[in-house]
Every structure is written in C-alpha cells, then in structure tokens.
UniProtKB/TrEMBL annotation:
The keyword Nucleotide-binding applies. GO terms for cellular component: cytosol. This is GHMP kinase C-terminal domain-containing protein. One of its GO terms (molecular function) is ATP binding.
C-alpha cells in the first residue's frame, strides 16, 4: 500500500519495485504518507490495488501506512550501516542496486574487531530496529521487556544493544555484548530479573557453528 502511494508521488519517471530502493533522504523528501488509512479509502484512490499478489487490501481495515512503509526503507539503511561497522568501515555502506538476480552475499573477512565507538553505534542501530518493529505492530511485551532490561544495564556490563529477530511478535531477542565475564554476568542478571518478574526464564543460545563452510550446502532449484 505504501509503495503504491509513493509510486504515485514519484510519477512515471521512476518505477519503485521495492521500498528498499529508496534512501531515507529520498523518503523524507516525498510528500508524507498518512499515519493511518482505511482499505476502502486506499481502494478509492487506487482501484487496481497495491500490486502485491500475496496480500489483499481489506476495505474495513485501518492500515498504519507511514510506519509500515518507512520500516523497510530505514531498516535497509540500518542493515547496510551495521554490516559496514562490523567490517571495520567507518563510512556508511551504499545501498545495493535493486535485485534483478539472486543476492550475492559478501565473503570478505572482518578487518578488525569493532571499536568501542562502533559497538555503541551498533547498539543504537539495534535499538532503532527494535523500535521500528514495534511501530508496525510486530512487538510483544515479553521481548520488549528483555530489550528494556538490556538497555538498563550500566556501561560496565558491556552490553551494547538488543533487538527482536525474525518476524517479530515475540520470539528470540538478539543481544550484542562483549565476550567477557562482565557481559556474561550482566546477561545472567537480565535472565534473573525477567524470571523474577514473569516466572519464566528465557533460554539462551550462544555461539555458532561453521555452518555451510564446514558441512556444505544444498542447492534448490524451482522448475519453471
């Protein structure tokens, strides 16, 4: 829905296939989208629909158009900056071109561990991502509380940020912290506090295997 409205503002000179093709600066320069819009009002303006075969606009529903359209634009920008910081680059990574073929993932190794300033910025980006999920209705009280507890930890805890992962609406919270005894103690304190408040102790997953690097991969091809 947001893409269709933005496309109308862009005109025929530029075809917007994906919202992530817009930069945050370009989005801010376009006429603001409505905070809320009913499906019936949208269909009156765009009788052909929103161009998405996977979903249907319900006339009786109210849609948070501005927040939902802004999320992929800003999240894409956050992800590009996050990746650049992890690889030791201070500058924000440029947005990749629209996907005309399967994505090619970077394989270059990390140049150096992120600096303290970069870690703090990584935490800010994670917080922005988590808050954006909540604005589009994908938050949950449980994961919000875990993120709040991580954010409330003192600087000496060496915890830099936290965010919901996956599709949102509950699930797994990713926490960025230092590989140190201080950070582990802070995580344990977060778990203890959450368990005290809710009666449920979260399950912690840490570390990673070599994945496909060690075990190979399976390639799936879809027949036309």
């Amino acid at each position: 829905m947001g893409r269709a409205l933005l496309q109308a503002s862009l005109g025929e000179g530029r075809v917007l296939t994906h919202l992530t093709e817009l930069t945050p600066e370009e989005l801010a320069a376009l006429p603001p989208l409505p905070t809320s819009l009913s499906g019936s009002a949208f269909l009156q303006q765009h009788p052909a629909g929103h161009g998405d075969a996977a979903t249907t606009v319900r006339p009786e529903a109210e849609y948070a158009v501005a927040a939902c359209a802004a999320h992929p634009v800003l999240e894409h920008d956050r992800v590009c900056e996050f990746e650049a910081l992890l690889r030791g680059r201070a500058a924000r990574a440029p947005a990749p071109p629209p996907l005309a073929s399967p994505p090619q993932f970077p394989t270059a190794p990390l140049r150096r561990p992120p600096s303290e300033q970069q870690r703090l910025r990584l935490g800010e980006l994670m917080r922005g991502s988590h808050e954006s999920y909540s604005r589009v209705g994908l938050g949950s009280a449980a994961t919000d509380r875990i993120v709040e507890l991580v954010a409330a930890a003192p600087p000496s805890a060496r915890l830099y940020g936290a965010k919901i992962t996956g599709g949102g609406s509950g699930g797994t919270v990713c926490v960025l912290g230092e590989a140190s005894d201080e950070a582990q103690a802070a995580i344990d304190a977060v778990l203890d506090e959450y368990a005290s408040e809710t009666g449920r102790r979260p399950y912690v997953v840490s570390g990673s295997s070599a994945g496909a690097v060690a075990f190979g991969h399976v390639e799936l091809r879809c027949s036309p």
